[in-house]
Specification:
Helix content: 40-55%
CATH architecture: Orthogonal Bundle
Radius of gyration: 21 Å
Strand order of the largest sheet: 1-2
Number of strands: 2
Largest sheet: 2 strands, antiparallel
Strand content: under 5%
Shape: elongated
Structural class: mainly alpha
CATH topology: Multidrug-efflux Transporter Regulator, Chain: A, Domain 2
Order of helices and strands: HHEEHHHH
Length: 131
């Protein structure tokens, strides 16, 4: 199928497919004699998996660092690529690092929220930090 049809089937845009290809998340597709990209069901399934991982909180850079392991998603049935005992070449270290980054951001935002709430309640910006 052509790029527009593949993008629609995966729930995204042609621009996203080209971006994923540029970043190495999708292998270069076959081309028609006129040079148009052609995608199959495997590529559509991979784009769906990419979108699910992005929606779960991973970043494109996280995925790029493990793009060489996307073959785990192509198996039938797919292997668990995030299992903690799966080894350093799987997604487990990336997921752990992303969770740590999210925890740090939550801590930072909670502190910032508390400071703003104190300011709103008292009007005083000189109160000591609560950490």
């Amino acid at each position: 199928m052509r790029i527009g049809d593949a993008a629609a089937a995966a729930g995204t845009t042609p621009r996203a497919l080209r971006f994923y290809e540029q970043r190495g998340l999708l292998p270069p597709p076959t081309r028609t004699p006129s040079g148009q990209r052609e995608y199959g069901p495997g590529e559509v399934a991979r784009v769906r998996a990419i979108r699910q991982l992005l929606a779960a909180g991973l970043t494109v850079d996280d995925l790029v660092s493990r793009a060489h392991r996307f073959d785990l998603l192509d198996e039938d049935p797919p292997r668990r690529c995030c299992a903690a005992d799966s080894g350093p070449e799987t997604f487990a270290p990336v997921v752990s690092a992303r969770l740590a980054a999210l925890d740090a951001e939550i801590t930072r935002l909670t502190s910032l929220r508390n400071k703003l709430a104190r300011l709103a309640a008292t009007g005083d910006t000189d109160e000591p930090d609560e950490d």
